[in-house]
Design brief:
Layout: E1 9-13, H1 18-29, E2 33-38, H2 41-55, E3 59-63, H3 69-83, E4 88-91, H4 106-134, E5 137-142, H5 155-175, E6 180-187, H6 193-206, H7 210-219, H8 229-239, E7 251-254
Parallel strand pairs: 1-2, 1-4, 2-3, 4-5, 5-6, 6-7
Length: about 260
């Protein structure tokens, strides 16, 4: 299936590893030129080189932190400067730290709101003039299943990420007139560095073997395994495509059937 992404330009935040890197790879494989950003320069450049080599697409590495407003303006401007346009924006930031209500400080709350919610607000604000000019726009936000169902031990995610659902619904209605769609994807448990860290924390707290923590996690997923980042990336590539022109304002969970909430 041709997704109609040849000649399009995409910006992927957090594109050096995990779900972001897999997404950048999927978009590049479909023929899009891709700018990826991350804070770690070495890993970022390695990812860009490997994606470009594998797909033949143009991949631009941009060092920056989407938690910083001034970086976002620069990252979007550099994307357009290097690649000539902007059609697809994938917002992807590191999840808030785990913790209970009594454990989390005031600063942790502020940072969670700034990085998890405001990074998307600022990305859309910076990208919007370019998306409107192109008369084609796709905004896809990588969130979490915590938008639908609270996850034990992830209070900040449970509180802040649902705000992205309200943002998505509102932007979808406001921007539809410009040919711009806005959707969220809510990944469940994927085989990523972040999940490994969460499992490590759980193993330490319970004196359980890490392999047993993972086995028990997989047992809670109806399909019986963790997701591969490439599986989420394919969902995002579709939402970024011409074929998804009538899909907007949605939060689509890709979680192997784990989330019980409707």
């Amino acid at each position: 299936m041709d997704l109609g992404l040849k000649g399009r330009v995409a910006f992927v935040a957090g594109g050096s590893k995990g779900l972001g890197r897999a997404t950048a790879h999927a978009l590049a494989r479909e023929g899009a030129s891709v700018a990826i950003c991350a804070r770690g320069e070495v890993e970022l450049h390695r990812a860009a080189e490997e994606i470009a080599r594998d797909t033949g697409a143009r991949v631009i590495p941009l060092v920056g932190d989407v938690g910083k407003p001034e970086d976002i303006e620069r990252l979007i401007a550099k994307t357009v400067e290097h690649l000539g346009a902007l059609h697809v924006v994938v917002s992807n930031s590191g999840g808030p730290p785990p913790g209970t209500f009594e454990e989390l400080s005031e600063d942790a709350w502020r940072e969670a709101i700034d990085v998890t919610l405001m990074s998307t607000v600022r990305l859309v604000r910076a990208a919007l003039p370019h998306l409107r000019h192109a008369a084609f726009g796709r905004v896809v936000v990588i969130t979490s299943t915590s938008t639908r169902e609270a996850i034990p031990g992830l209070l900040l995610s449970n509180v802040v990420r649902p705000a992205l659902v309200g943002l998505c619904k509102t932007l979808a209605r406001e921007l539809a007139q410009y040919g711009i769609t806005v959707n969220n994807v809510g990944p469940g448990m994927y085989d990523t560095e972040r999940l490994a860290k969460l499992h490590g924390r759980q193993a330490q707290a319970t004196s359980m073997e890490l392999a047993e923590v993972r086995r028990r996690a997989e047992a809670t997923i109806p399909v019986g395994r963790l997701g591969a980042p490439e599986e989420l990336a394919r969902v995002i590539a579709f939402l970024a495509s011409e074929g998804a022109s009538y899909v907007t304002g949605q939060t689509i969970l890709a979680d192997g059937g784990k989330t019980a909430a409707y």
